[in-house]
C-alpha cells in the first residue's frame, strides 16, 4: 500500500479484480486487507493511513478465520496403506498410514480396496499411545481380525452399509500444472503417484489450457508448456482408488513423475474418476485371425496339451521364483512353457484383468 500512497481508489480497484477472479475459480470467500509490512500498517494494529478501511488487521483475521473441518464421518474413511509390518510370527500384521478422511475406531468394519477383502479393526495405535478412535489427519497403525490381502498402495475404507465409496478408477479427468521445459503432449507416458500408490499413466487427451491472464480456457491445445495449467484425461496401467479433489484433497490429488529421471514434472487434481470395464475401449484396428491348425493337431505335433497355471499371492511372497523354477523343470523334461507376469499379460492383451499380483505359466500346446 505504501507504493500507491495508501490510495483507497486503487485498493478498491484491486479488490474488485481479486473478487472477480475468485468467482471464476469457484466462488472462494476471500478477505482483502490493505497492509504495508515495512511500517506494520494493518498487520497487528490498525493504520492511521487507511482511515477508510474498516475490516480486520492481518493478525485479527488469522486469529478468527474459520478453517475447513476435516471430513470426520466414519462413512468417509480413507486410509491409504503406507507400510505393512509383522515383527514376529506370533503378532498379526499391522497396517500403517495417515488417515486421509473420516474416523476410525476399534471394532469398525473395513474393506480393503481394490481387492474388496473385509475385516474388523481390533487394535489402533498412534505415535503417542494406543487409543480406541482416531480422526483424520492422524497417522495410525492398526491390527485387523483377519490376515487379509493388503499391501502398500491399497486403501482401507469403511465397511458399513452406508459408506461413501471411492472410485476404482482407470481413467482420470484432471487439472494438471506442468513444471518442466519439455512440454506435455497426448501419448506421453509417466508415473503417477497418488497417496501411497504409484502407477504408470498415459496422457489420452489434452482438453484445454488456461490463459493465466484472463482465466479463459483454450480448447484442444497441442501441448502444455512450462507452468501451463490445463485439463487432461489420463489412463492408468492399474486401478487407482480415487475421489474428486472437491471431495477429498488427499485421494483427489497426484503428482506426475518422469520415470527416466525420477523428477516430479507435474501435479494434478482429479475432476472425475472413472472405472473402465474389462473390454472397454478396445482397439478396432486389431482383430483376431483364426489359425488353420486346430487344437488337436497342435497337441499331437508338440506332444503336449495346452494349460495355464496361475500363481497368486501377497507381494514378494515368491510367486515369480516358483514359476521360474517350474518353467525350468518343464523345459528340462521336454516341455515348451512360457512364463509371464500379470503386468505383461495386461500390456499385451488389454482384455486381461487380474485383481491381485499374479504370475502365469503357459505351455505352448494351448
Automatic annotation (TrEMBL):
E.C. designation(s): 2.7.1.25
Identify this protein by name.
Bifunctional enzyme CysN/CysC
Signal sequence, renumbered to the chain: none
| Gene3D superfamilies (alphabetical) | P-loop containing nucleotide triphosphate hydrolases, Translation factors
Q: Which InterPro entries match?
A: APS_kinase_dom, CysN_NoDQ_III, GTP-eEF1A_C, P-loop_NTPase, TRAFAC_GTPase_members, Transl_B-barrel_sf, Transl_elong_EF1A/Init_IF2_C
What residue stretches are annotated with the GTP-eEF1A C-terminal domain? 172-270
Query: Which residues are in the APS kinase domain?
Result: 306-334
Q: Does the keyword Repressor apply?
A: no
Keywords, in A-Z order? GTP-binding, Nucleotide-binding, Transferase
Amino acid at each position: 500500500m505504501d507504493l500507491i500512497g495508501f490510495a483507497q481508489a486503487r485498493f478498491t480497484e484491486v479488490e474488485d479484480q481479486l473478487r472477480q477472479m475468485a468467482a471464476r475459480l469457484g466462488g472462494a470467500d476471500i478477505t482483502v486487507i490493505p497492509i504495508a509490512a515495512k511500517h506494520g500498517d494493518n498487520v497487528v494494529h490498525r493504520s492511521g493511513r487507511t482511515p477508510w478501511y474498516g475490516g480486520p488487521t492481518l493478525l485479527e483475521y488469522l486469529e478468527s478465520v474459520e478453517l475447513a473441518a476435516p471430513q470426520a464421518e466414519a462413512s468417509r474413511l480413507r486410509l491409504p496403506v503406507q507400510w505393512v509390518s509383522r515383527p514376529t510370527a506370533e503378532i498379526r500384521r499391522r497396517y500403517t498410514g495417515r488417515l486421509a478422511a473420516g474416523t476410525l475406531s476399534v471394532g469398525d468394519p473395513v474393506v480393503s480396496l481394490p481387492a474388496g477383502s473385509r475385516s474388523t479393526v481390533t487394535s489402533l495405535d498412534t505415535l503417542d499411545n494406543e487409543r480406541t478412535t482416531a480422526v483424520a489427519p492422524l497417522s495410525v497403525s492398526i491390527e485387523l481380525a483377519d490376515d487379509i490381502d493388503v499391501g502398500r498402495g491399497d486403501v482401507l475404507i469403511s465397511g458399513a452399509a452406508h459408506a461413501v465409496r471411492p472410485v476404482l478408477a482407470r481413467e482420470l479427468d484432471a487439472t494438471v500444472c506442468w513444471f518442466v521445459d519439455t512440454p506435455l503432449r497426448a501419448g506421453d507416458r509417466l508415473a503417477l503417484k497418488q497417496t501411497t500408490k504409484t502407477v504408470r499413466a498415459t496422457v489420452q487427451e489434452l482438453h484445454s489450457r488456461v490463459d493465466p491472464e484472463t482465466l479463459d480456457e483454450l480448447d484442444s491445445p497441442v501441448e502444455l508448456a512450462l507452468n501451463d495449467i490445463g485439463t487432461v484425461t489420463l489412463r492408468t496401467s492399474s486401478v487407482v482408488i480415487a475421489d474428486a479433489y472437491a471431495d477429498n484433497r488427499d485421494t483427489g490429488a497426484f503428482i506426475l513423475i518422469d520415470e527416466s529421471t525420477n523428477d516430479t514434472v507435474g501435479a494434478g487434481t482429479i475432476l472425475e474418476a472413472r472405472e473402465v470395464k474389462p473390454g472397454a475401449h478396445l482397439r478396432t484396428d486389431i482383430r483376431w485371425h483364426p489359425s488353420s491348425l486346430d487344437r488337436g493337431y497342435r497337441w499331437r505335433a508338440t506332444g503336449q496339451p495346452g494349460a495355464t497355471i496361475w500363481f497368486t499371492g501377497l507381494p514378494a511372497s515368491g510367486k515369480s521364483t516358483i514359476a521360474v523354477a517350474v518353467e525350468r523343470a518343464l523345459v528340462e523334461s521336454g516341455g515348451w512353457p512360457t512364463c509371464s507376469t500379470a503386468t505383461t499379460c495386461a500390456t499385451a492383451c488389454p482384455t486381461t484383468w487380474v485383481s491381485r499380483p499374479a504370475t502365469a505359466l503357459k505351455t505352448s500346446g494351448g
